[in-house]
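Record 1 of the preview.
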Amino acid sequence: MKKILIIQPIHQEGIKLLQSNSEYEFEVVENIEINFLKNKIKDCDGVSIRTAKLSGEVIEAANNLKIISRHGVGYDNIDLNVSKKKNITLAITSTANAVAVAEHVMFMILNISKRGNMYDDTVKSGKFNERNKLPKTVELWNKNILIAGFGRIGQALIKRCLGFEMNVFVYDPYVSKEFIERQGGKKVEDLSEASKNMDAVSLHIPLNNETKNIINYELLKSMKKNCIIINAARGGIVNEIDLDRALNENLIFGAGLDVFETEPPAENNALLKNKKVFLSPHTAAFTEECMTRMGKETIQNIFDFFEGSLENSKKVKL
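->
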């Protein structure tokens, strides 16, 4: 019988999937303290993990670990070097969250461009008759949006942008011009240069040495004053201090962040008080439907791995 450790709870449908297979025993833990995990992981054959950090120290303590199944698509919370050294497979739920995140991005763009919070507050605070004093909203029709990263989320997002009759540009050095054009977009070769002509930029790229702080003050200063920045990818891609400064100096129209460099963000993070930024607590994928899919796919990836049928598209190249 194979032993599976579920670090942080997943949707009950995923648990039911585990319960239905008599070849597996499992335990769900919420304690993510290093020494606790080192003890729990010792004899495990597989691990499911959400956002908690799975350090090299913890992975080193695993004697039998063969697969880490990530509940999501990012994996910067997992020590890849140690995983590779121990020949552990890392799987992601690559097909589960595209729709939810793409919808959340559109929700953010619409809320910012239509000044949703401000207009709502005006009515609720009894200032309905002061509506003519409110700043005007902007339309999405015929606006330019740059989708940075054209994986499943980017491909789900382009359909929604085209539905609003936006002009969609795509930056992704690993995707062909022909494929992007078939989806209705236009390929750009340089993210920084292309950003200068955009009305919105939505980030769907991994966090690494090349992308850290790629959205910085110098780039923000070069953008159009009506540009909206959305980051539903990974904290650290956008320099938060620079973003706050750019918003305060009216260099761009607004921003939406679902992710932060430090989570939760520090109480003194200036963006928490900036009215030009719309924030959510890393919950872009938190639809009921998506959490169900992710929970089931996380467990199914473990099953498929041990059965030798895990798709390459769900494996991370270490």
